[in-house]
Every structure is written in structure tokens, then in C-alpha cells.
Amino acid sequence: LSKMTEAELYSQYKGVYLPKLVHHPECLKHFEEFTFRTDDIIIATYPKSGTTWMQEIVPLILSEGDMASVLTLPNWDRMPWLEEHRAMALNLEQRPSPRCFVSHLHYSMMPKSFFKVKPKVIVVMRNPKDVFTSSFHYHEMASFLVNPGSVDEFLAKFMSGQVMFGSWFEHVKGWLNAEDQDHVMYISYEEMILDLKESVSKMARFMGKSLSEEVSAKIADNCTLKNMKRNKMSNYSLVPEELMDRKKSEFLRKGIIGDWKNLFTDAQSEYFDAVYKERMKDVKLNFVWDL
Ligand code: A3P
């Protein structure tokens, strides 16, 4: 694929762009008709907020640290995106409980069954300056996404939601305002960076698993960026070079808090802060922006 425009690479779904490569109309229909179970675990993330990380952590919590699934199944089969075409081929209906999935779609786009069944959801949020930075590098290396252009150009698109999966602001606010929050847990990427073992224990408790200290520590150790980079089932090295150009950027890139400082000028950072302040004025969230 050469670099093409939004119109060529994306389709529109309920007002947001989705990359055509993995989202076909049939799989969105499959998504809309999907039947949840109460004990399903769904990870809801805006892209570049720690999805791949959760695809490593959640299966390890469910298996109580047994490595079989993370060493034999690619992250996208282990914990598929419900809205992607792959979900149709995996026969998810036959998977034993508790099943686990990820989704990048907004709360308001969840299927009917989601609101009826109320499966467990873990919402992972990341400070949006780092989300932007991660996404900018991802758009440079992925041929099925538009070329990001300059930071200013991509910033204008990101702030107005003219990017895949739409607006970060709308995505986060939608999930934060979810009804019936008993089945929803919120965690930030930064919390996970700062104390992964405690984050693993917290998520395990929410999932109804009581893990020993030792098992939580083992899972946290396996799920460091360094160790995940070594696992070919998790580091995206199975994706062909034409789709992801690793000479430009790795998928598992830096995994730190505050890399936006290496990308933004002062003016870009101030512009971001001003928009953030306005769009998030009625939201109580305290992100860690740098260390
Ligand atoms: P960076 O590009 O900032 O490094 P997603 O999986 O939602 O697309 O998010 C990808 C981002 O999560 C990338 O951020 C990636 O490096 C980071 N990430 C993945 N696994 C991680 C881990 N074990 N520890 C820290 N960050 C991780």
C-alpha cells in the first residue's frame, strides 16, 4: 500500500473513521449482533492507550500466570478486537467463559446486547499528549493509515477528531459517563507504568480472580515493555513489513510517560493545553503528563 488519503484508506462508521483494511461492513454487522455474556471482559481503549499491553496482562490474569496463551497465540487472536474482521473467523461464540476482548469503539457504539448483559469492562486511558505522540509515530510506520504529515497537520486532525476512531475527547468522555458503573473499572496507562504489580492485582480483583502476590509479581514482570518486545506473539513482528515498516518505528516503541516533550514545540503544547482545558472542563481526571 502506498500512502493514500482518508477517503481511500478509511470508511465512515457512525461518524468516525475506521481503517478499511480490518473493518469491513460485514464485521461491523457481526459486531452489532454480537451476544455478550455477563462474565465477558472487555478492554475499552482509544488507540495507543495500552491495548496491546492489556492483551498480555488480561490473559495472564485469567490463566493465573500460565504463559501458554501469550506464547502461542498472537495478541489479536488471544484477545480480539470485536469490531475487526478477524473476530468473525474466531468463532467467539464457542469460546469458554470468561472470554476477553478489546474494542476501540466509543461507549455509544456498543452493541445492544452490551447494554442488556452488562459484561465487565476495563477502560484504559492515557494522557492524550502521549496518545498523540504514539499515534503520530504509528501513522508514519503503518501503510494502512494516512500519512500524518507535519506535527501541526496531524495535531489539527487529532484535536478535531478527524482521525481513526474519532475524537479522543469524545471517546474518553463517553466511557467515563457510562451508566451502571458497577461493571466498569477505570485505570490509566500512567498508573500501570508507575506500579504495574499493584495495577495487575487491582484488575484481577475486579475480574474476580484472587492472585497471590507471587503470581501478580510474575505477571507484572512478564508484561514489562522489555519482555513483551521479546515475545513475537505480542510485538507485531508477525505483521508483514509492507503493512508496518519497522525501520520507521516499532509498534512497541518507547512505552514511557512524557514522550510528547520530544515532539511538541512549546506553542504546540500550549495549544494542546488550551483545547484540553476547554474540552475537559467538566471532567475530573488527573493525568500524569510527565515524570
Ligand atoms: P508508545 O508509542 O508511546 O511507545 P496500543 O497498544 O493501544 O496501540 O498502544 C501502544 C502504546 O502502548 C505504545 O506507546 C507502546 O509502546 C505502549 N506499550 C505497549 N506495551 C507496553 C508495556 N508493556 N509497557 C509500557 N508501554 C507499553
UniProtKB/TrEMBL annotation:
Residues 39-283 form the Sulfotransferase domain. This is Sulfotransferase. Belongs to the sulfotransferase 1 family. One of its GO terms (cellular component) is cytoplasm. SUPFAM superfamilies: P-loop containing nucleoside triphosphate hydrolases. It comes from the Eukaryota. Gene3D superfamilies: P-loop containing nucleotide triphosphate hydrolases (3.40.50.300). GO terms for biological process: catecholamine metabolic process; xenobiotic metabolic process. Its EC number is 2.8.2.-. Keywords: Catecholamine metabolism, Cytoplasm, Transferase. Pfam families: Sulfotransfer_1. One of its GO terms (molecular function) is sulfotransferase activity. It is found in: Cytoplasm.
